Amino acid sequence: MNKSIMFLEMFDEFLRGVIHDKPENIHVLITSDHGNIEDLSFGGHSKNEVPFIFMGKETHHFLKVSAINELFHTIFTKLFDTTSITKFEKI
Fold it and tell me: Which structural domain, as residue segments, surrounds residue 49?
């Protein structure tokens, strides 16, 4: 767990650098394909919820997103104004 804490502290510093003076037209999306840091005894992909961070003027589109497949759908339908690719909606 100490290594996890050290990594998260390093990530905080990285994120501070990314968002410092971020231009308004730039979007930042940070997520993972699985969550495990809360239980390091499990080495595979867990079924736990995966948090994400979205920063930018389009944040309102992401307020109700709660799963990876919803994130993909929202990116393509709201940010790129396209129809989501059906095979990826079932991830």
Answer: 2-89
